């Protein structure tokens, strides 16, 4: 599931013309956040608290 999401993000960034270093950095932080939340679905994560603790 996370792999599909990351590929969708990557595709969108390439369509918008983001540079490769920016793409790499964004995907790294997204992977870190997914790992931090325990791979939970975004609708089940209490985002304000989660972001504050991240």
TrEMBL record:
Ranges where the Integrase SAM-like N-terminal domain occurs: 5-44
Keyword DNA-binding: yes
Recorded GO MF terms: DNA binding
Protein name: Integrase SAM-like N-terminal domain-containing protein
Biological processes per GO annotation: DNA integration
InterPro entries: Integrase_recombinase_N, Integrase_SAM-like_N
Domain of life from the UniProt record: Bacteria
Annotated transmembrane regions: none
Keywords of this entry: DNA-binding
Keyword Signal appears in the UniProt entry: no
The organism of origin for this protein: SAR86 cluster bacterium
